[in-house]
Amino acid sequence: MNVQDYMLSVGQAARAASRAIARADTNQKNRALHAIADALLRDSAKLIAANALDLAAARQNGLEPALVDRLAVSAATVESMAEGLRQIAALPDPVGEMDDFTYRPSGIQLGKMRVPLGVVGIIYESRPNVTADAAGLCLKSGNAAILRGGSEAFHSNQAIAACVHEGLAAAGLPAGVVQILETTDRAAVTALVTMPDYVDVIVPRGGKGLIERISREARVPVIKHLHGNCHVYIDERADLDKAFAIALNAKTHRYGTCNTMESLLVHQAVAGAILPRLAEAYWDKGVELRGCERTRDILGNKVVAATAEDWETEYLAPILAVKVVDSLDEAIEHINEHGSHHTDAIVTEDYSRSRRFLREVDSASVMVNASTRFADGFEYGLGAEIGISTDKIHARGPVGLEGLTSQKWVVLGDGQIRQ
Amino acid sequence: MNVQDYMLSVGQAARAASRAIARADTNQKNRALHAIADALLRDSAKLIAANALDLAAARQNGLEPALVDRLAVSAATVESMAEGLRQIAALPDPVGEMDDFTYRPSGIQLGKMRVPLGVVGIIYESRPNVTADAAGLCLKSGNAAILRGGSEAFHSNQAIAACVHEGLAAAGLPAGVVQILETTDRAAVTALVTMPDYVDVIVPRGGKGLIERISREARVPVIKHLHGNCHVYIDERADLDKAFAIALNAKTHRYGTCNTMESLLVHQAVAGAILPRLAEAYWDKGVELRGCERTRDILGNKVVAATAEDWETEYLAPILAVKVVDSLDEAIEHINEHGSHHTDAIVTEDYSRSRRFLREVDSASVMVNASTRFADGFEYGLGAEIGISTDKIHARGPVGLEGLTSQKWVVLGDGQIRQ
């Protein structure tokens, strides 16, 4: 079968299965989730063996060590996949939630019902545990999923697929509910993102290159997580101990996550007091500082001069851009202009400034006196997340079960007609 | 200036203005809406004179009489535009609404704030009153708008634009808040839908051809209203008097609207009882019936034999496709397969069947014992609507002020850091 025909058959199976999973009750979906978890644990050795094939190929192909690391599946990885599925089973089921019923003047009673999106296509790179996560989130939210993992994880993903299908069958659900593509042909991705009749939304997870390419090609709506260029702004009226703790945590808690601070903005009135103390702590941890001229005036030449590009960069590394600003206005403007609308925080004790920051910073998460590292599905109480959206429509920020649903209108009448 | 440069300058002005309008308080936005309404009423004669130029050109170019009608602006049209703006002013302001604040285990307090989308591009055809409506809805919801009306309404739209800008200035808002394109070059549309840096969402309003073209070209999310192939299903357990009233109203209240029924499905157990009565009433009103074989067995050869195409067609005319079905399952499957996910209704007194229809029919509006004609922003209490979405993500069904906003996450902390 050629790729076009294969993808058409996948799309048709997904559309048909989406009706079955949309109707499934919560118990049936949870039974499937637990059955998949059981199968994964039982097949742990098989999964690790399949993964070994991928790892050997990756090393042979000279994949970067960091990527090889992300690809590796251990017994602990399998346990955490299974645990993730059990946590999804424990989350409340959003499907069918009804809200906001009120009578309209015509006598109809109008409300909303939360419903699955239908068929969700997920395109991701290297990490095989995404396969289990994504399958679980789509299943619980009543969607059919078409998963396209990286070619470097092909054997691992097929082994996980076998467990997923066993779990679906055990719960009496069709195999079309979760399909993991059996091809690594690039044309399959193009087909997937251009089948609006069979796919309702695409979630790409991966590097900026992948996401930009998908967004360009897609003829289906995309929920995308482009990048996280997050800021902390230390205001003139900040509590400097809180500022120190937050700015340090937001940068150094983990370097490779999208909610890590990449640029620090400091009001000029407190720059002299807070920057030397912070710089010491950053340098202790091996963080390179790149600063504006005023930052370098305070901290000296150990700070590299920042270029225009630094303000735009998601380092994902122990590097931090630092800028001294004259005002809250300048900070807000800088963030809206150079940030990625992901997560930004102000440190201040000033009521009015905190309100302005919350309202005017155009980001998916805006914070007062808290570390940007909190922008995360688990910290927000969503459970697992399918990604963190930097889009503005549908869902912003961490996307959990609710982000994989939408609301339809329900009208309950007694024979009403339009006059 | 070439079209590319012109559109870039429009996009930049819109992005800058979007920050100002997002910050504007409700009073300021309402002042602008009333000032625009005042200017429209004062300039009524000017608008009608500008419209006369468009009408003369339309007639000269042999535009269809129905389209010439839609293009015409009378004193009553101007009054209804002004009244529409005053109604938008009277609606609650969704911007800044905060909800769902709860403490998380880490001690952060997490909630959501409703915020504008940013810059909304609206592309529409002939009817000049859309210009005032769309400007008003975007303004009230805190968005900057870029409006591209049909070339056949160019003079009318420019005259309305002058009033809009006068109203914005009177309220101290920048002109960039509502820009009405001063070119009819097709390349301007292509530029508008491919500027993700300056435009956050596109709303196309018009025929299927326009919307399909925009969706194909767009590199920006699109909220689209593709078409309305709406169904009424008369169940075996329907109250036949309600069924008669609803089926008649849903088809004949107005023929040209998207929430008009285009296909009638009737359970075989009641087809013999209800169809002859309904057919009489339809024929009295000049509605042509196209039926399946069983329908023709009951109603005779006056009913044209329906082809496969009839089940897919939005007639927007006094034509109705009629099908006798064996079961609720067949009805639901027919609607999900052939409908357009717009609005579908069941007539039944059966509790369990009503629940299944509501849950399983995958449409933006699902109704029990009410006419599909209720699917409308005014009937739903949203006030004016920017369109009726047949998409599944973001907003389904009538899109009012809330559909032009999204929610961001707000984190209120006291110095919390991730452990």
Unreliably modeled segments of chain A: none
**CATH fold-level label of the largest domain in chain A:** Aldehyde Dehydrogenase, Chain A, domain 1
SSE string of chain A: HHHHHEEEHEHEHEHEHEHEHEEHEHEEEE
N-end to C-end Cα span of chain A: 56 Å
GO molecular function (chains A, B): glutamate-5-semialdehyde dehydrogenase activity
Protein name (chains A, B): Gamma-glutamyl phosphate reductase
Function (chains A, B): Catalyzes the NADPH-dependent reduction of L-glutamate 5-phosphate into L-glutamate 5-semialdehyde and phosphate. The product spontaneously undergoes cyclization to form 1-pyrroline-5-carboxylate.
Subcellular location (chains A, B): Cytoplasm
